[in-house]
Amino acid sequence: MIERLRLIGHKYGIGDDALRDLAELYEGMIPRTPTQPVASSSAAHAVPAPLAPVHFKERYEDLGCIGLGGFSEVREVWDRHVRRRVALKVQLPQRSSPDDCARFRQEVQVMARLQHPAVVPLYDWGELPDGRIWFTMKRVRGDTIGKRIVALHSLEGPAFVQALRRLLDDFRRLCEPVAHAHALHIIHRDITPQNLMVGELGEVHVMDWGLARDLAHRLEAERSSCVTTGANAADPSETSVRTRIAGTPFYMPPEQARGEIAAMGSASDVYAFGAVLYEILTGSPPYTSSRHAHMAPERTVELVLSGPPRPVEEMARSEVPRELYPLCRKAMERSPSDRYPDAGVLMEAMRNWLDGADRRSRARRIVADAQREHRAKIADMREDAASRRARAREILEKLRSFDRAQEKAEGWKLEDDAAAIEQEALREEINWTQKLRSALNEVPDLEEAHAALAEHYAESLLRAEAAHDQPAATGFAALLEDHAGKLSGSGRARYEALLRGDGRLTLVTDPADVHVVIKPYEPVSRYLIANEERAYIVTTPIREFRLPRGSYLLSLKAPGHREAAFPVAIGRGEHWDGVRPGGATPYPIRLLREDELGPDDVYVPAGWFIAGGDPHAGESLSRRRVWVDGFVMRRHPVTNAEYLEFLNALVAEGRADEARRHCPRLPRGTTWNNDDGVLAYLLDERSGQYALKAPETERALPVVSVDWYAATAYAAHLARRTGLPWRLPSEFEWEKAARGVDGRFMPWGDHVEPTWACVSGSHSDRKSVMPVHYYPTDVSPYGVRGMAGNVRDWCVERWLLDGPRVDGGVLQIEAAMADDLADRPIRGGAWISAGDLVRLSVRYAEPPTKRHGVLGFRLARPITP
Question: What do you get for the CA distance between the two ends of the chain, in Å?
Answer without folding.
Answer: 103
